[in-house]
Amino acid sequence: MKSKSVSCIKQDEKIFEKPVGVKDVMDYLGRGRTHIYDLMAKKLLPYHQLGGKRYFFLSEIETALKQI
After folding, report:
1. Cβ atoms of residues 9 and 18 within 8 Å
2. What CA dihedral angle connects 12, 15, 16 and 20, to 10 degrees?
3. Taking 70 as the threshold, does the pLDDT of residue 10 lie above it?
4. How far is Cα 68 from Cα 64, in angstroms, rounded to an integer?
5. In this structure, are residues 64 and 36 in contact, taking their beta carbons and an 8 Å threshold?
6. CA–centroid distance for 63 within its chain
């Protein structure tokens, strides 16, 4: 797994992480689109869906991968 910093926004002492798309997750994990969708179907990769698009937070992905 590549080491990539998580981009965050700091506002009023709260830190908000920017969501990323499928392409960014593919680059982060070094896996293909099919593998990413398989993990999502098996509920092993956490994601959020808004308006028909899927968004991921890298911190949630790191936590989920530690549990596997």
Report:
1. yes
2. 150
3. no
4. 7
5. no
6. 10
- Number of residues written out for the chain: 68
Q: Structure tokens of 3?
A: 């080491």
* Element at 58 (helix H, strand E): helix 58-67
Look at residue 14 in the predicted model and tell me its pLDDT. 62
Please give the biggest Cα pair distance in the chain: 39
Give 56's strand partners: 20
CA distance 46 to 58: 10
**Reduced DSSP (H G I as helix, E B as strand, rest coil) percent helix, strand, coil of the chain, to 5:** 40, 25, 35
**CA gap 58, 64 in Å, rounded:** 10
pLDDT of residue 15: 75
